[in-house]
């Protein structure tokens, strides 16, 4: 069985920037961002909302058990992450879930994933630092995309793809194209517990 692919259509005329606000993102917007004919612009209010989500996630994780942040995931969901291991926990999760195989997905499809994920983070429920949105937008503007393979996890279809994207952002997985985000610009803030 082959994965679904976004097929190339007629060239799109640049209709200006696409504002990412965490709420409204049309298929046409995603296609323009994927094709590189529009520039993503994170909405200021949405970036503030993502920042509040990041701060809340850090506070909650510091005071109690949070699935995947201060505990393992899946079968390890009841296992606490030791304090001394907390800093590298997220990276270890990405590494353990990035086991996709098969052909590399086309640039357009991966770039569409970057656009959708940036907008999802801006909805304010992800608990990720807003600089991840900035890095995803930098990649879209620069024409870059991480290597993502077509076959991944069973059950949650985007888990391996998003893990490969996360590892690329962390500097542990390859990029294609020019303009990959520079890791030091968005990962230098304090790590969460």
Describe this structure in words.
This protein has helices at residues 27-35, 44-63, 86-97, 107-121, 131-142, 159-169, 183-186; strands at 18-20, 40-42, 101-104, 145-146, 149-151, 175-176. The protein is built from seven helices and six strands. The chain starts with 17 loop residues before the first strand and ends in a 7-residue tail after the last helix. Residues 1-13 and 184-193 have low confidence and may be disordered. It has 193 residues and is mostly helical. It has a single domain (18-186), classed as Orthogonal Bundle (Fumarase C, Chain B, domain 1). 43% of the residues lie in helices and 9% in strands.
Write the layout of secondary structure elements.
Blueprint: E1 18-20, H1 27-35, E2 40-42, H2 44-63, H3 86-97, E3 101-104, H4 107-121, H5 131-142, E4 145-146, E5 149-151, H6 159-169, E6 175-176, H7 183-186
Parallel strand pairs: 1-2
Antiparallel strand pairs: 3-5, 4-6
Helix pairs in contact: 1-4, 3-6, 4-5
């Amino acid at each position: 069985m082959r994965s679904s692919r976004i097929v190339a259509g007629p060239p799109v005329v640049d209709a200006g920037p696409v504002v990412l606000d965490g709420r409204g993102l049309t298929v046409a917007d995603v296609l323009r961002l994927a094709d590189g004919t529009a520039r993503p612009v994170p909405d200021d209010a949405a970036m503030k909302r993502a920042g509040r989500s990041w701060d809340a996630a850090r506070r909650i994780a510091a005071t109690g058990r949070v699935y995947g942040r201060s505990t393992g995931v899946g079968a390890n969901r009841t296992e606490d992450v030791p304090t001394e291991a907390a800093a590298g926990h997220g990276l270890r999760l990405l590494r353990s879930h990035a086991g996709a195989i098969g052909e590399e997905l086309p640039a357009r499809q991966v770039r569409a994933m970057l656009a959708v994920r940036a907008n999802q983070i801006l909805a304010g429920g992800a608990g990720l630092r807003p600089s991840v949105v900035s890095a995803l937008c930098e990649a879209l503007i620069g024409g870059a995309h991480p290597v993502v393979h077509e076959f991944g996890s069973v059950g949650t279809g985007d888990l391996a793809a998003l893990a490969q994207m996360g590892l690329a952002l962390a500097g542990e997985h390859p990029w294609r194209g020019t303009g990959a985000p520079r890791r030091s610009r968005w990962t230098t803030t304090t790590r969460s517990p």
